[in-house]
Specification:
The protein has 265 residues and is an all-alpha fold. The chain contains 13 helices and no strands.
Length: 265
């Protein structure tokens, strides 16, 4: 009973900010096109256009098409784009004075982080699950178990990427600067995650970079969830390692985002 009074000041403003993120998204339909349309076009054009030239050297099973191989990475790309579009609103909120009002309110800074992360994660998972309807076109049969496992993994990935976006956007006052960091950091992280090509086919020095990239394990976790109970399209990283690193990445990013929000106005 004693924990309830302490939980209300944290959860109530967090839920309010989460609701605001969802309502804002519904009213700004261009964000749907940006976060969902671009990855879908990318997946269809690149996946279909390069399918005959793709050789899955090191794949766990033969006959893997490029369209099928890039599907899990496209799911992560949708989550990444949603995190970018959601957390960039922090800069807009600062310009409009809304963020200053929230900071001045008698609420914990952790509530701001949780509200933003929860809102971004919700939107990311909903859009990714909508894209999941195209899975049969790539040759990936869906089951109840794979859908549930994928939803759980995407929530963790979404929380991690949303917290990372929050961490980058919080100290910034320029959307141009945010986009510059995005192009310099987030997009290369996705390209070097095994979403587009197999780790086994990369140069030795690049394999070390990919092994140190947390998105490599996020993409692998999504891939393992999609193929749960069946043979995967790739052999590494293992399911346990992928899930562990993905959870660790999300936890670290949320903690860092909370500390940044608490230390800087």
């Amino acid at each position: 009973m004693s924990s309830t009074p302490n939980a209300v000041p944290l959860l109530l403003p967090a839920i309010s900010l989460w609701r605001r993120e969802v309502v804002r998204f519904v009213r700004q339909r261009s964000r749907v096109i940006g976060a969902l349309g671009t990855p879908v076009v990318f997946w269809l054009l690149i996946g279909s256009g390069l399918r005959d030239s793709f050789q899955a050297a090191g794949a766990a099973r033969p006959g893997v098409s490029f369209l099928e191989y890039t599907f899990p990475g496209t799911l992560v790309m949708i989550v990444l784009f949603t995190a970018i579009f959601s957390t960039i609103s922090i800069i807009e909120d600062r310009r409009e004075g809304f963020l200053q009002a929230v900071i001045a309110a008698p609420v914990r800074r952790t509530a701001i982080v949780l509200g933003k992360v929860m809102g971004s994660t919700t939107l990311a998972v909903l859009q990714a699950m909508l894209f999941l309807l195209l899975a049969p076109l790539s040759g990936i049969p869906l089951t109840v178990g794979s859908v549930l496992a994928l939803a759980a993994v995407l929530m963790i990935v979404g929380a991690g990427l949303s917290a990372l976006g929050f961490l980058i956007a919080w100290p910034m006052d320029s959307t141009q600067g945010f986009h510059a960091v995005m192009n310099l950091l987030l997009i290369p992280m996705w390209l070097l995650s095994g979403a587009f090509f197999l780790v086994s086919g990369a140069a030795r020095w690049l394999t070390w970079v990919m092994a140190a990239n947390p998105l490599t394990y996020c993409v692998a976790a999504v891939r393992h969830a999609l193929y749960i109970g069946r043979e995967n399209a790739t052999t590494a990283p293992s399911p346990m390692v992928s899930i562990a690193v993905t959870i660790g990445f999300a936890a670290v990013m949320i903690v860092l985002a909370g500390r940044v929000a608490a230390s800087k106005d």
